[in-house]
Structures are given as C-alpha cells and as structure tokens.
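Write out the 3D structure for:
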Amino acid sequence: MIAYLNNASSSGLILIIKGIGAGNLLINLEQDEKITFTVTQKQVRRVMRALNIRCQIRTKKNNRIKQSEQYTQDNLLEQEFTVRHPNQV
C-alpha cells in the first residue's frame, strides 16, 4: 500500500510505503535481473531519504497479562547471617 502525505514543514510530498523498507527493497533489487551492479542497503536508504520515501513502521504492542500478587514468605532469618561453623546459618 502506498500513501502520500503532504508535509507542510518541508517542501513537497512524502511517499509512505506500508510494510516495505530499505531491507525489503534491497532484496527486490538484488533479485531483479535488469540491475547488473551491486546495491547496498546504505545506498537504498540514501536514495529513499533523497526522494522522501518513508516506511511506515508498526510499533510493537506489549500483550502482557497482569499476574496476581504472589505470596511472600516471612523473613525467618531476620537478616542475621553470623556463622559459627561452615554451611550453617
């Protein structure tokens, strides 16, 4: 899906491509038989920046379920860790 966004702060339109970024464009360019030279990801990003082409990135949603309060044990040692013999508390 391709959408055009009119940005008032910069001169011209910004082309927003949904779901395809520089990496996917690079893969498509590498598979194209008409292109005989090598293309790097930095070159693709530089051309996208020059042509005001942006990829719409979906933010990751945290789907965590709130856990119930867990039972905490009593402090039986009362932070007294003086040891008279090895392996004893």
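Strands lie at 2-6, 13-18, 53-56.
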